[in-house]
Design brief:
The protein is α+β, with helices and mostly antiparallel strands. It has one domain. The protein is built from 6 helices and 4 strands. The strands form 2 sheets. The chain has a two-stranded parallel ribbon.
């Protein structure tokens, strides 16, 4: 898996820098040449055998938005022993302008996709999704 960065034609802003350093990608936490967790299976810049994807069943079409569909397939691959190695020199660019409004709209969809991920893989609830720390259990259980 390589680095996905903001396209040079898009003017960087403190908000975009925040997104790329935190909630969107968090590449700054990765080390070149090292294995990274399945949650970094970012399909914006990853390469692998087509046959491996066919073997595990391709993308799950229950995910209607570009949110957690890649993490979900990354998790299924992880369970087979698949390893993701980070290569900071394999760079691609995201050509997505984003502001606070579009970020909020996207994260509403991210939340909907997180519920789909949880229903498919409830074992990720605490370990990866961190759902127990999000809300009162009574509210959370009614929501899910």
């Amino acid at each position: 898996m390589g680095l996905t960065d903001l396209h040079p034609e898009i003017e960087g802003t403190p908000f975009l820098e925040y997104i790329y350093q935190g909630p969107q990608f968090s590449y700054h936490t990765l080390k070149h040449g090292y294995e990274v967790p399945f949650g970094y299976f970012y399909t914006s810049n990853i390469s692998m055998s087509k046959q491996k994807l066919i073997d595990i069943g391709l993308f799950d079409e229950d995910f209607k938005y570009a949110a957690f569909e890649d993490v979900e397939i990354g998790y299924r691959l992880y369970k087979t022993g698949f390893k993701i190695i980070y290569d900071q020199d394999a760079v691609t660019y995201h050509y997505h302008k984003s502001d606070l409004q579009s970020f909020i709209k996207r994260h509403i969809l991210v939340g909907q996709s997180a519920i789909i991920l949880y229903k498919k893989h409830p074992e990720l609830k605490d370990w990866w999704l961190g759902m127990d720390s999000l809300a009162n259990p009574i509210f959370r259980n009614q929501f899910l």
